[in-house]
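User: structure tokens for this one?
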Amino acid sequence: MNSHKQLKQRAMASAIALACASQAGSAAAQEAGSGEIATVTVTAQGRKESILKIPYNISSINGQQLEDNVIVDQSELLRGVAGASVVDRGARNSGVISGITIRGLNVNGSALGDFQTSAVPTVSTYLNNTPIFANFLIKDLDRVEVLRGPQGTLYGSGSLGGTVRYLTRRPELATWSAKLDGGISHTQGSGGNNYSTDGVFNIPLGETAALRVAAGKVDNAGIIDYRNVYVLDAAGVPVAPKGITDPAASYRSVKDADTVRIDYARISALFKPTANFTALLTYQTQRDHVGGRRQPTRGSDGYGVPYGQYENGSVQLEPSAREVSMASLEMDWDLGFATLSSGTSHYDQSGDSLSENTGFYAKNNWLADYYYNYPRPMAQAYRSYGDKAWVQELRLVSKPGGMLDYIVGAYFQNQDLAATQLSYLRGLKAWADVALPSAGVTSDNDFVFHRLQNFKERALYGELTWHVAPTVRVTGGMRKFQTDFNNDSIVGSGVIAPYNATTHTLITQNDSGNLFKANVSWDFMPRHMLYATASQGYRRAGANAVPLTGNFAESAAWQTFAPDKNLNLETGVKGTLGGTRYNLSLFHVDWKHIQIDTTTPNWGFYVAQNGGKASTRGLELELSGKLAENWRYGLNYAYVNARLDEDVLRADKPSVVTAKAGTVLPGTARNTLSGSLEHVTMLDNGWYWTQRVHGYAQSATENAISTLPTVKQRWAGFGDWGLSTSLSAGQWNVTAYVKNLGNSDGVTGGFLEASMGTSPGQNYYGNGSKVLISQPRTIGLTAGYAF
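Assistant:
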């Protein structure tokens, strides 16, 4: 039986067994005592309004539901949202590149994630009103809003596929409260336990001000054993137990190497001196320290010994660290006829990591061709990144009730990006000085990459809605933008004089344009809406850093890349009927000049290039509500058919096809299904007993769009089940849970044997290939006390 048929059977079994929904659906189904569904309020269009009044496909996931299901990361969150998919890389380098895809709008290989790519993600993410991808822990949130389809008019660059908004809980005036939580869990494959502690305090300051403080930490034991890492000397060079010219090496094993330590804190101050003015000041910070990859090797070492289920073949440890902080000031003035809002924010994110590159060198035969078959090869890539920006936005939003509704705004962002890679073949020079003194080796450092970029974006935007009749609305929107861009890069390569060379590149670009949106919606029955939308999205242009002269020169065709843009056509119907909420949408997206992150053909420099056309089409279905008294359910299903419409041609040699028309876009399953079922029992002693079951299934995905055997791989579909049971009464809450009940690998990407594998003929006995797996089965207990 093939994997496609198996997936269909798993999906059908999930649907029958659950008859249910995702966490997102359950969160939207907060029922009133009468059996009707309570109103879900969102602010995606700049004003508070019912989710049923938004004339496009949007989901809102309630923060309390996230806490009840012990969801703290975006991978688990978004697997409960129809049309969204995630490449799950674990905690390591989680702030470098977004793994979110909506409606299949992705052309990047799933194995990306160790370095800051040239092109921005296809899905924009916001923390409150600040555009930032920082992958904060999901803690003390009011809700998460997922906007599907291009959102270019209101959200600008990077919203090709949609926008995800994380909205934090605000301080509450005149209310003192506090909550303490703790958790312990164990993950399959680990020799230790995971711990978490959280505290939230709401502190009123008189009648017009309040503070809210949330802080905590995560301390997770690792699960991945690095089986064969070199023993290193004080200089970080592999030890030579029989002398520097002898090929012998010393290895050790490191158990549970991928430890995770995260500390976070958020403080918010709310000031409301009058009924017409509100100011909210927020500061958030997070620090991550991760010991290694949650990515095992599926293969054997250079001696033919297979790696175990949770073993990695790297010959060195691969830690990462990150620090991110964000401060924002949001002010709202009620002018009577409209609300004037100002959002000012600044964020600063930086991080670094060490990566195993020896397998990459070996599979390119570089160890033999350029490094004299150095006997203890350890190619180490030190990578760092930085992202900081000032953002200012002004909005004027009309009050509802008139014939015309409008939102007009101005946006400015000044963003600085920094990226570094320093590659070393550790110990090469010391060995060559003795073994090959005439070789001319000048350093262990064989690659230098420094990039500083500055983007300034200015935009004016607006949307106008005409209430043609009490039940019919027509909306038009436009965004006029201008982007100024500067790139300052240094690239150096080579360890053997005179073949080493450095190139300094300065590039300046300007880009401007307009984005449009049109929408019509009709309330064909009370609480039932039919809508149709045409919307555009885009990503800004950029530059690459490649040498154009010297021994490592590449073609000038790789130097810059142009913006890409798409057009989304969508129709849908949404509403409520008794105790059921439903949402069904059909979409078709045409995508032009697609930006693809890739590498240059000669020396493998990281670059982005423009391809041709791609498209995606499909449907999304959400149901949620009540099956019977005390039972809540929902159903999320998405069908996404995302493909290249034209061949992708090599930027410097258009006669070379690197991906063929018809190729499935990577990272997105054609079919996804998620569900949950919840039952609440009121016990005689005043306690509430809540039981939950949730499931997720997806069909197969592609690793990359390229035809090259180094990256082309089809990953099988998989399913993921979870259970939890909670007891709560008054101030206490206790939850026991199991995640990934079947202990599915849930592979969503990988570095293949053909690109990173072992090569004993070049003295590389490790194996750098690996797969990106979901968190294995985890059994845990959380307890909370509120006062």
